[in-house]
Amino acid sequence: MLILCLFSLFVSARAEDVIPPVSPSESESSSSVLTSQAWEALASKDYATAKARIARCRDLYEAKAKEMQETLSVVPGPDTAREFWALNDVGTCLFILGKVAEAEGKNSEAIAAYQDVIKNFPMAQCWDKQGWFWQPAVAAKERLTALTFDSAK
Prior knowledge:
Blueprint: H1 2-18, H2 31-43, H3 47-70, H4 85-103, H5 107-120, E1 126-128, E2 132-134, H6 136-152
Antiparallel strand pairs: 1-2
């Protein structure tokens, strides 16, 4: 009986340890991991995987990204930009979605994705490995101009 009780305590304690609480940055489904995977999939022309990672990021973090966007009236500086992780990653994912659509020759879908970034996540930022932040909304405006010019030819 004593062994059974001890075993029960061990099992119940272990069940709680199986899924420890983790912050989004530590999870396999963190916004930053999903965004990195979307970039990698775009680079390797695995568009289905890119779209799947983008959709997952949006499903999990778009509400938080919108909440963060609503608190801002200016683009955060480099010292605080990382605090807006959901906004940054969802905005970046939408930019990637536009790039995927362009690569697939789906310009109307690309335009819609770029417009989404500009309208809903204008303060989003993406870290460039060369050492600075850039804004997906600004890059999206440039892509919109290029697509509009190309379609007018």
